[in-house]
Design brief:
It is built from 10 helices and 16 strands. It is of the alpha+beta class and about 400 residues long.
Length: about 400
């Protein structure tokens, strides 16, 4: 062909080193015109700001020993504020207040021979299983309606006795109260035996109800307890209730309990062994815990000085001083190459919906380029063997 007749003399006139240099320059030019594939950005790229921006786009904080007590005093992040809090234990009164639909057992004693309510052979009247009405009253013969709801057992006994003394001056009243249909708590889900459980005493707590329902389901990881009372919802973990008896709330009639999986999670991105969404396996997850949960760093790609934790705070908690974040968007930088960074990472808490970004090492990109150049040189060496 004509092209071959023109090209071969040109190649023959070139020296070996010229051909090799030409091929190398062509390869480097090709690399310069494209971006190398990678799983995330380099730390300097991620933390760079737009030129000419009037306000900072985010705040950057190094996670160190001195910084830990500062961030610990900040409000929760936007996702963390969704927690409903919890009601702590408070000692109940000696007598539980009587509620509508409770059952009262009343015994009236009278020793008078001419008693209106007893006989010579029977000096007492037993009025068992008297249900408190929806309005909180009971009916007593010769007395009519007596309001008892809201009173303790002692107070209700004294009121009934005063009413009875109006017709039987020597009457003595004995009273026993049993929880009624409304004196129960419903354990709805997340246990072996869901159902309604009566409040057997004034100290019936959340753990009592969960135990009565067969305990939390074994398939639920880090089970959370949700208490619904009077239209409000409160939540905490079962682990906290085990660990701190002061949180084992006393239940009220009509309360509802659910045991559910922990809804909290964080994200893992970049040069980590796993890029995924990770559920919280325990109440507290630190930065070191998070790195363990994602399998650590990708050894050939990750920058151990560039572990970035991205978090968003509500605008109303942003502060100029140290009492809150300086910007709603905050980036916390963990350096795993220093002892202070390692210890601090073990105490820095991950919050729900944080993003743990393992930045790429700049050296890994350079290594890739050098490998490609070496490959080009191998091609150039192969070109030496071409018989022109």
């Amino acid at each position: 062909m004509v092209v071959q007749r023109l090209t071969l003399p040109i190649l023959e006139s070139m020296g070996e080193h010229v051909i090799r240099s030409l091929l190398t320059m062509l390869a480097v030019a090709a690399l310069a015109g494209c971006s190398l594939p990678r799983g995330g950005g380099v730390q300097s790229e991620i933390l760079s700001t737009r030129s000419g921006a009037e306000e900072p786009q985010f705040a950057v904080h190094m996670v160190t020993r001195d910084f830990l007590p500062i961030v610990a005093g900040w409000p929760a992040s936007r996702a963390g504020q969704e927690s409903d809090g919890w009601i702590g234990y408070s000692a109940p009164p000696a007598d539980r207040a009587i509620q509508p639909y409770d059952i009262l057992d009343i015994v009236v004693w009278d020793s008078e021979e001419t008693s209106l309510i007893t006989t010579e052979a029977q000096k007492m009247v037993d009025m068992a299983d008297m249900q408190v009405s929806a309005g909180g009253t009971i009916f007593l013969p010769f007395v009519s309606m007596v309001q008892v709801a809201g009173l303790s057992r002692t107070q209700a006994r004294a009121r009934i006795q005063r009413k009875m003394e109006e017709i039987v001056p020597s009457a003595q009243v004995q009273l026993n109260v049993k929880p009624g249909a409304r004196g129960s708590v419903s354990v709805v889900a997340g246990v072996s035996s869901p159902g309604a459980y009566p409040l057997s005493d004034t100290h019936y707590t959340v753990l009592n109800a969960i135990a009565a329902a067969g305990g939390a389901s074994a398939s639920i990881e880090n089970p959370q307890v949700r208490l619904i009372r009077a239209g409000k919802s409160y939540a905490t973990s079962l682990e906290r209730l085990y660990r701190d008896p002061s949180l084992d709330t006393i239940l009220h009639g009509g309360d509802k309990l659910l045991v559910e999986a922990d809804p909290r999670y964080f994200r893992s991105l970049g040069a980590a062994q796993r890029e995924t969404i990770v559920a919280f396996p325990q109440d507290v997850v630190t930065a070191l815990d998070a790195l363990s949960l994602i399998g650590g760093l990708a050894e050939t790609r990750a920058d151990p000085k560039g572990i970035l934790i991205l978090r968003e705070y509500p605008e109303n908690v942003v502060r100029d001083g140290m009492s809150g974040p300086a910007h709603a968007r905050s980036v916390f930088v963990v350096d795993l190459t220093s002892a202070d960074g390692l210890f601090s990472a073990g105490q820095f808490r991950i919050e729900p919906e944080d993003t743990v970004m393992v930045s790429e090492s700049p050296i890994s990109g350079a290594t890739t380029i050098l490998g490609l150049v070496a490959r080009v040189l191998d091609i150039a060496n192969d070109a030496d063997s071409i018989d022109f």
